[in-house]
Amino acid sequence: MSTLLSRAWGRTVKWLQLIVNGHILNPIWHSREERRKTRYRATYNAVMDYLWRYNMDIEEATLPPISEEEEPERAFTIWFQGEENAPELVKACFRSMRRHLKQELVVLDEKTLFDWISLPDFVIRKWREGKIPHTQFSDICRAELLYRHGGLWFDATDYVTAPVPQSIMDQDVFIFMAGEKIRGSYAFIQSCFLRAKKGNPLMGIWREADLIYWKEENSKINYFVHHLLLRTAIFTNDLAARSYVRMPKIDQDPTHALWGEHAVDPYSPQLYEQLTSGSFFQKTNYKDRRLKNLPKGSIAEFMINQ
Length: 306
What we know:
Blueprint lengths: L2 H22 L7 H20 L22 E5 L9 H13 L3 E5 L12 H8 L5 H16 L1 E4 L3 E3 L5 H4 L3 E5 L11 E8 L4 H16 L8 H12 L1 H9 L12 H4 L6 H8 L4 E3 L15 H7 L1
Parallel strand pairs: 1-2, 1-3
Antiparallel strand pairs: 3-6, 4-7, 5-6
Protein backbone atom coordinates (compact mmCIF):
# COMPACT_ATOMS: atom_id res chain seq x y z
CA MET A 1 0.00 0.00 0.00
CA SER A 2 1.37 3.45 -0.93
CA THR A 3 2.17 5.98 1.77
CA LEU A 4 -0.70 8.21 0.60
CA LEU A 5 -3.22 5.36 0.71
CA SER A 6 -1.86 4.24 4.07
CA ARG A 7 -2.42 7.70 5.54
CA ALA A 8 -5.91 7.92 4.06
CA TRP A 9 -6.80 4.50 5.46
CA GLY A 10 -5.32 5.44 8.83
CA ARG A 11 -7.43 8.59 9.01
CA THR A 12 -10.55 6.65 8.04
CA VAL A 13 -9.90 4.12 10.81
CA LYS A 14 -9.31 6.98 13.25
CA TRP A 15 -12.70 8.56 12.50
CA LEU A 16 -14.44 5.19 12.72
CA GLN A 17 -12.83 4.60 16.13
CA LEU A 18 -14.04 8.00 17.32
CA ILE A 19 -17.59 7.49 16.08
CA VAL A 20 -17.90 3.99 17.53
CA ASN A 21 -16.05 4.38 20.83
CA GLY A 22 -16.73 8.05 21.49
CA HIS A 23 -20.39 8.20 20.48
CA ILE A 24 -22.16 4.92 19.57
CA LEU A 25 -20.74 3.06 22.58
CA ASN A 26 -20.98 6.10 24.88
CA PRO A 27 -24.19 5.47 26.89
CA ILE A 28 -26.60 8.41 26.87
CA TRP A 29 -27.67 7.57 30.45
CA HIS A 30 -24.21 8.39 31.75
CA SER A 31 -23.55 11.84 33.18
CA ARG A 32 -22.31 14.62 30.93
CA GLU A 33 -18.90 14.46 32.60
CA GLU A 34 -18.65 10.67 32.14
CA ARG A 35 -19.60 11.00 28.47
CA ARG A 36 -16.98 13.74 27.99
CA LYS A 37 -14.27 11.55 29.52
CA THR A 38 -15.32 8.65 27.29
CA ARG A 39 -15.05 10.88 24.19
CA TYR A 40 -11.64 12.11 25.31
CA ARG A 41 -10.38 8.54 25.83
CA ALA A 42 -11.66 7.58 22.38
CA THR A 43 -10.02 10.65 20.82
CA TYR A 44 -6.70 10.01 22.54
CA ASN A 45 -6.64 6.32 21.56
CA ALA A 46 -7.59 7.02 17.93
CA VAL A 47 -5.02 9.79 17.44
CA MET A 48 -2.24 7.88 19.16
CA ASP A 49 -3.00 4.79 17.07
CA TYR A 50 -2.49 6.95 13.99
CA LEU A 51 0.70 8.61 15.22
CA TRP A 52 2.46 5.31 15.97
CA ARG A 53 3.23 5.08 12.24
CA TYR A 54 5.93 7.74 12.69
CA ASN A 55 9.37 6.62 13.81
CA MET A 56 10.66 8.84 16.64
CA ASP A 57 14.03 7.12 16.91
CA ILE A 58 15.81 10.47 17.08
CA GLU A 59 19.30 10.55 18.58
CA GLU A 60 20.84 13.60 20.22
CA ALA A 61 23.71 13.54 17.72
CA THR A 62 21.25 13.97 14.84
CA LEU A 63 19.59 17.10 16.26
CA PRO A 64 20.36 20.36 14.41
CA PRO A 65 23.55 22.05 15.59
CA ILE A 66 23.09 25.25 17.56
CA SER A 67 25.36 28.16 18.31
CA GLU A 68 27.62 27.70 21.33
CA GLU A 69 27.38 31.41 22.08
CA GLU A 70 25.85 32.12 25.47
CA GLU A 71 22.54 33.96 25.30
CA PRO A 72 20.59 35.86 27.95
CA GLU A 73 17.35 34.37 29.19
CA ARG A 74 14.51 35.75 27.08
CA ALA A 75 10.76 35.33 26.98
CA PHE A 76 9.33 34.72 23.51
CA THR A 77 5.81 35.14 22.18
CA ILE A 78 4.26 35.56 18.72
CA TRP A 79 1.53 37.73 17.26
CA PHE A 80 1.81 37.16 13.54
CA GLN A 81 0.10 40.42 12.54
CA GLY A 82 2.41 42.54 14.73
CA GLU A 83 1.99 43.74 18.31
CA GLU A 84 0.49 47.06 17.23
CA ASN A 85 -2.36 45.16 15.48
CA ALA A 86 -3.17 42.84 18.37
CA PRO A 87 -6.54 42.92 20.17
CA GLU A 88 -6.68 44.98 23.36
CA LEU A 89 -6.63 41.90 25.60
CA VAL A 90 -3.49 40.59 23.88
CA LYS A 91 -1.82 44.01 24.25
CA ALA A 92 -2.71 43.89 27.95
CA CYS A 93 -1.09 40.45 28.17
CA PHE A 94 2.10 41.81 26.61
CA ARG A 95 2.09 44.70 29.11
CA SER A 96 1.65 42.22 31.96
CA MET A 97 4.67 40.26 30.73
CA ARG A 98 6.83 43.37 30.62
CA ARG A 99 5.55 44.41 34.04
CA HIS A 100 6.37 41.18 35.86
CA LEU A 101 9.02 39.21 33.96
CA LYS A 102 12.69 39.59 34.77
CA GLN A 103 13.56 38.41 31.27
CA GLU A 104 13.51 40.51 28.10
CA LEU A 105 10.26 40.00 26.17
CA VAL A 106 10.64 39.33 22.43
CA VAL A 107 7.32 39.73 20.58
CA LEU A 108 7.77 38.14 17.16
CA ASP A 109 5.61 38.64 14.10
CA GLU A 110 5.48 37.24 10.57
CA LYS A 111 8.39 39.46 9.49
CA THR A 112 10.74 39.15 12.48
CA LEU A 113 10.13 35.49 13.27
CA PHE A 114 12.63 34.22 10.70
CA ASP A 115 15.41 36.30 12.23
CA TRP A 116 15.23 33.84 15.14
CA ILE A 117 14.32 30.45 13.72
CA SER A 118 15.39 28.07 10.97
CA LEU A 119 12.83 25.62 9.63
CA PRO A 120 12.77 23.42 6.52
CA ASP A 121 11.27 24.97 3.39
CA PHE A 122 8.44 22.40 3.29
CA VAL A 123 7.15 23.57 6.68
CA ILE A 124 7.15 27.24 5.72
CA ARG A 125 5.55 26.44 2.35
CA LYS A 126 2.77 24.35 3.89
CA TRP A 127 2.12 27.10 6.45
CA ARG A 128 1.89 29.77 3.77
CA GLU A 129 -0.44 27.49 1.76
CA GLY A 130 -2.70 27.10 4.79
CA LYS A 131 -2.06 23.38 5.19
CA ILE A 132 -0.40 24.02 8.54
CA PRO A 133 -2.73 26.35 10.48
CA HIS A 134 -1.32 29.30 12.44
CA THR A 135 -1.84 27.51 15.75
CA GLN A 136 0.08 24.40 14.73
CA PHE A 137 2.79 26.49 13.06
CA SER A 138 3.16 28.44 16.28
CA ASP A 139 3.57 25.10 18.08
CA ILE A 140 6.49 24.24 15.81
CA CYS A 141 8.02 27.69 16.25
CA ARG A 142 7.99 27.60 20.06
CA ALA A 143 9.87 24.29 20.15
CA GLU A 144 12.34 25.66 17.58
CA LEU A 145 12.83 28.93 19.48
CA LEU A 146 13.53 27.30 22.81
CA TYR A 147 15.77 24.61 21.33
CA ARG A 148 17.91 27.20 19.52
CA HIS A 149 17.89 30.01 22.08
CA GLY A 150 16.56 28.69 25.37
CA GLY A 151 14.39 30.79 27.67
CA LEU A 152 10.63 31.00 28.09
CA TRP A 153 7.62 30.73 25.84
CA PHE A 154 4.35 32.52 26.61
CA ASP A 155 1.22 32.43 24.49
CA ALA A 156 0.04 35.91 23.50
CA THR A 157 -3.02 35.33 25.70
CA ASP A 158 -1.07 34.56 28.89
CA TYR A 159 -1.71 37.29 31.46
CA VAL A 160 1.31 37.35 33.76
CA THR A 161 0.79 38.25 37.41
CA ALA A 162 4.19 37.40 38.95
CA PRO A 163 7.74 36.50 37.94
CA VAL A 164 8.39 32.93 36.84
CA PRO A 165 9.31 30.95 39.99
CA GLN A 166 12.99 30.13 40.40
CA SER A 167 12.07 26.47 40.83
CA ILE A 168 10.90 26.49 37.20
CA MET A 169 13.83 28.56 35.96
CA ASP A 170 16.19 26.00 37.50
CA GLN A 171 14.80 23.21 35.30
CA ASP A 172 16.49 22.13 32.08
CA VAL A 173 12.98 21.82 30.66
CA PHE A 174 9.53 22.42 32.12
CA ILE A 175 6.08 21.83 30.63
CA PHE A 176 2.80 22.01 32.56
CA MET A 177 0.65 18.88 32.56
CA ALA A 178 -2.81 19.16 31.01
CA GLY A 179 -4.95 18.95 34.15
CA GLU A 180 -8.74 18.62 34.01
CA LYS A 181 -10.10 22.19 33.88
CA ILE A 182 -10.02 22.77 30.14
CA ARG A 183 -11.15 21.25 26.88
CA GLY A 184 -8.71 18.65 25.61
CA SER A 185 -7.31 17.26 28.84
CA TYR A 186 -6.44 14.14 26.80
CA ALA A 187 -3.69 16.27 25.25
CA PHE A 188 -1.44 15.18 28.16
CA ILE A 189 0.52 18.43 28.44
CA GLN A 190 -0.11 22.08 27.65
CA SER A 191 2.12 24.36 25.63
CA CYS A 192 0.93 27.89 26.41
CA PHE A 193 3.97 28.22 28.70
CA LEU A 194 7.29 26.44 28.23
CA ARG A 195 10.72 26.70 29.79
CA ALA A 196 13.87 25.14 28.35
CA LYS A 197 17.58 25.73 28.42
CA LYS A 198 19.32 26.25 25.09
CA GLY A 199 19.94 22.98 23.26
CA ASN A 200 17.65 20.96 25.53
CA PRO A 201 17.30 17.52 23.87
CA LEU A 202 13.61 17.06 24.77
CA MET A 203 12.78 20.33 23.03
CA GLY A 204 14.95 19.30 20.09
CA ILE A 205 13.23 15.92 19.81
CA TRP A 206 9.81 17.60 20.04
CA ARG A 207 10.84 19.91 17.18
CA GLU A 208 11.97 16.91 15.11
CA ALA A 209 8.73 15.03 15.85
CA ASP A 210 6.74 17.96 14.47
CA LEU A 211 8.87 18.01 11.32
CA ILE A 212 8.59 14.24 10.82
CA TYR A 213 4.80 14.53 10.97
CA TRP A 214 4.42 17.59 8.74
CA LYS A 215 6.83 16.32 6.11
CA GLU A 216 4.27 13.62 5.31
CA GLU A 217 0.98 15.28 6.28
CA ASN A 218 -0.99 18.15 4.76
CA SER A 219 -3.43 18.66 7.62
CA LYS A 220 -3.63 18.19 11.37
CA ILE A 221 -4.99 14.85 12.57
CA ASN A 222 -6.13 16.60 15.75
CA TYR A 223 -5.97 20.11 17.19
CA PHE A 224 -3.51 18.83 19.82
CA VAL A 225 -1.27 16.91 17.41
CA HIS A 226 1.81 18.83 18.65
CA HIS A 227 1.15 17.71 22.22
CA LEU A 228 0.50 14.09 21.30
CA LEU A 229 3.58 13.94 19.10
CA LEU A 230 5.58 14.65 22.26
CA ARG A 231 3.77 11.81 23.98
CA THR A 232 4.62 9.53 21.07
CA ALA A 233 8.28 10.54 21.33
CA ILE A 234 8.35 9.94 25.09
CA PHE A 235 6.92 6.45 24.61
CA THR A 236 9.34 5.51 21.83
CA ASN A 237 12.51 7.53 22.42
CA ASP A 238 14.75 6.76 25.42
CA LEU A 239 16.36 10.20 25.46
CA ALA A 240 13.00 11.96 25.48
CA ALA A 241 11.69 9.59 28.15
CA ARG A 242 14.66 10.21 30.47
CA SER A 243 14.31 13.96 30.13
CA TYR A 244 10.56 13.81 30.76
CA VAL A 245 10.90 11.62 33.85
CA ARG A 246 13.23 14.16 35.49
CA MET A 247 10.80 17.03 34.92
CA PRO A 248 8.48 18.08 37.80
CA LYS A 249 4.85 17.24 37.02
CA ILE A 250 2.57 20.19 37.80
CA ASP A 251 -1.01 20.53 36.50
CA GLN A 252 -1.95 23.67 34.61
CA ASP A 253 -5.34 23.95 36.38
CA PRO A 254 -4.31 26.97 38.53
CA THR A 255 -3.50 28.90 35.33
CA HIS A 256 -7.21 28.64 34.43
CA ALA A 257 -8.60 29.75 37.78
CA LEU A 258 -9.65 33.22 36.66
CA TRP A 259 -10.84 33.72 33.10
CA GLY A 260 -13.45 31.09 32.31
CA GLU A 261 -15.61 31.46 35.42
CA HIS A 262 -14.65 34.85 36.83
CA ALA A 263 -13.66 37.23 34.02
CA VAL A 264 -16.86 39.28 34.35
CA ASP A 265 -17.12 39.09 38.14
CA PRO A 266 -16.87 42.47 39.90
CA TYR A 267 -13.23 43.29 40.55
CA SER A 268 -11.89 43.47 44.07
CA PRO A 269 -8.23 43.27 45.11
CA GLN A 270 -9.03 40.40 47.44
CA LEU A 271 -10.83 38.30 44.81
CA TYR A 272 -8.17 39.03 42.17
CA GLU A 273 -5.41 37.99 44.57
CA GLN A 274 -7.28 34.82 45.48
CA LEU A 275 -7.82 33.81 41.83
CA THR A 276 -4.25 34.54 40.73
CA SER A 277 -2.39 33.23 43.78
CA GLY A 278 -2.02 29.68 42.45
CA SER A 279 0.13 30.53 39.44
CA PHE A 280 2.32 33.23 37.90
CA PHE A 281 0.02 33.68 34.90
CA GLN A 282 -3.60 33.23 33.89
CA LYS A 283 -4.70 31.99 30.48
CA THR A 284 -7.21 34.31 28.77
CA ASN A 285 -9.16 34.21 25.50
CA TYR A 286 -9.24 37.18 23.14
CA LYS A 287 -12.09 35.53 21.17
CA ASP A 288 -14.34 35.49 24.26
CA ARG A 289 -17.73 36.92 23.26
CA ARG A 290 -18.07 38.57 26.66
CA LEU A 291 -15.36 41.06 25.65
CA LYS A 292 -17.82 42.80 23.32
CA ASN A 293 -19.92 44.01 26.25
CA LEU A 294 -17.79 43.90 29.39
CA PRO A 295 -19.49 44.95 32.62
CA LYS A 296 -18.01 48.09 34.12
CA GLY A 297 -15.78 47.30 37.06
CA SER A 298 -15.28 43.65 36.03
CA ILE A 299 -12.06 41.72 36.55
CA ALA A 300 -11.54 41.53 32.76
CA GLU A 301 -11.90 45.31 32.45
CA PHE A 302 -9.36 45.80 35.22
CA MET A 303 -6.90 43.46 33.46
CA ILE A 304 -7.30 45.14 30.06
CA ASN A 305 -6.85 48.63 31.49
CA GLN A 306 -3.72 47.85 33.47
